[in-house]
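Chapter summary example.
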Amino acid sequence: MGRIRGTAYRMVCGINLSQIGMAMMIYANDYDDELPRAGGKTSVWANTIPDWKGLNRYEAYGITSDGTGGQATISSSLFLLVKYAKVEPKMFICLQDFKVSTFDPAKYGVRDKELTELWDFGPEPWKHCSYSYHIPYGDYALTTSSDPRLAVAADRNPWITSPAGKVKDFSLFNPDGDRNDINAGNSPSHKSDSQNVLFLDIHVSPEKSSTCGVNDDNIYTSWDGEDIQRGTPPKLGSQPANKLDSLLVNDPPIKNP
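The structure predicted for these 257 residues follows.
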């Protein structure tokens, strides 16, 4: 029964990512082929935004009147699919990602606004979004004309603290080792034996290794010189090495649970 349940959870997770991918293409069609990117032209990645209930994007992200500055979360970029592509918050939850729950603004005392009036999954967005997303801030944000082999989104990054307070030990990961060594670099969801990955060509695949990007690039790390399979674990402010370096991240909690 446990194996059957695990398989069912993986299937639901894959369906979620497939729906998210299709919504991204709808969004990109309306926004000059750009995939969802919250904030302004020069906004940076942070783990919260100034006002998730803001009256406009300037208040929400702290953008100046000329459209520059401000900060945005990874989840706030994904939340644009809730605002503009009618994706339900429950689609951003993996059933094997522990201590996350579907976003409900009423739980934060907000009962007078529609979801489309908000700008993120609440004041603690890391608790309401299971999926990592290719960093949309900086020089290597994805568009529909990027290499279709690039990973766009996947299960949670293993090197960023989760709502359950867990982060994996990077020293245990060896992409050339045995199955345990490889699993040490997989997402903690799905018992670390695989991760569902959404690619830019909009197919979703259950990948047994995180080295499933272009030329066996590790989707959860940035390149470390010529080392693209192990790479360097991300942190706030990390960037891909170049346009072929997938770097899928999620927002770390402000404080560990």
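To summarize the output: The chain has a mean pLDDT of 95.
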